[in-house]
Design a protein that fits this description.
By secondary structure, this protein is α/β, with parallel strands linked by helices. It is 52% helix and 15% strand. It contains 14 helices and eight strands. The relative contact order is 0.10.
């Protein structure tokens, strides 16, 4: 019930709080030390580690370390961390990592005698704080050894083991591709509602859609919340939609398997084309990204 945690961004900090409230002891490291110190000041069982070496020294053997950093920083972080670990220790990559990179990293990590699990995490900061959804890959026995960790941090029935190294990140990648398509459909549909001749109450439409309809979902609920916060015109929200790579990875994987994915591919193309060409559909998609992921989507001056 003691874990090292690397990376205290929106997701990481929230998950540490979740762990601490499930009676885990957390040794936290962040490149900027303020977040780790803030966590340690707020919770008796949280400890700040100013260096990776200090984090390792504070953990009992066999050690368990969760890495929650942006994809661009994963390689560098693991190459610093793994040589400090010993045979029998376990490291988890909980970020949005391209599954092919995960497969390759697993090989050299396990050459050090270190166990490795790849975990795709869904639910945004809110899910990380109150109960996430996790997709896990790696050795089955290592997963079973640490299953309590996933049970404690996820909603009921919200985690699953999917197979060998890379499987967890692959399932999460496809999840994100599906997410692109669902958000795009909602954005397009609500633009049609907005521009009709009926002067429709879009907030009411979102509320009704989310009570017993076939499209009842977290996304519709988040849109209702966004309308409550920003108004139905979404005047402060940018109609230029960013993308972080996972949709692109899904499209590329589908092409490699000769599987057509026109909905996901079209939603990705929309995001690319939205740069310099904002629309109400883009505003809806942007505000949904903000609602579940905390992404900055305000209009820029």
């Amino acid at each position: 019930m003691k874990i090292g945690y690397l990376g205290l961004g929106k997701m990481g900090y929230a998950m540490c709080e979740n762990l601490l409230e499930h009676d885990w002891e957390v040794v936290a490291y962040n490149r900027s030390t303020e977040k780790a110190e803030q966590l340690a000041a707020a919770y008796e069982k949280a400890h700040a580690a100013p260096t990776l070496e200090d984090l390792i020294a504070k953990l009992p053997k066999p050690r368990l370390v969760w890495v929650m950093v942006p994809n661009s920083a994963v390689e560098e972080m693991l190459k610093k961390l793994v040589p400090l670990l010993e045979e029998g220790d376990t490291v988890i990559d909980g970020g949005n990592t391209f599954y092919k990179e995960t497969v390759e990293r697993a090989k050299w990590i396990e050459e050090h005698g270190v166990n490795f699990l790849d975990v795709g995490v869904s639910g945004g900061p809110g899910g990380a704080r109150k109960g996430a959804c996790m997709m896990i890959g790696g050795n089955d026995e290592i997963f079973k050894q640490h299953e309590k960790l996933f049970k404690d941090t996820c909603v009921e029935h919200g985690y699953g083991y999917f197979g060998k190294h890379g499987a967890g990140h692959f399932v999460k990648m496809v999840h994100n591709g599906i997410e692109y398509g669902m958000m795009q459909a909602i954005g397009e549909g609500f633009e049609v509602l907005k521009k009709s001749d009926f002067n429709l109450d879009l907030k009411k439409a979102a509320e009704v859609y989310n009570h017993g309809s076939v499209i009842t979902s977290s996304l519709i609920g988040w849109l209702e919340s966004a309308y409550e916060k920003h108004g139905v015109d979404l005047d402060t929200i940018s109609g230029e939609v960013s993308h972080s790579g996972e949709g692109q990875w899904t499209v590329e994987a589908a092409r490699e398997m000769n599987i057509p994915v026109p909905i996901i591919e079209g939603s990705l193309r929309f995001r690319v084309d939205s740069q310099g060409n904002p629309s109400y559909t883009g505003q809806v998609v942007s505000t949904l990204r903000n609602q579940f992921g905390g992404h900055d989507v305000e209009k820029k001056d």
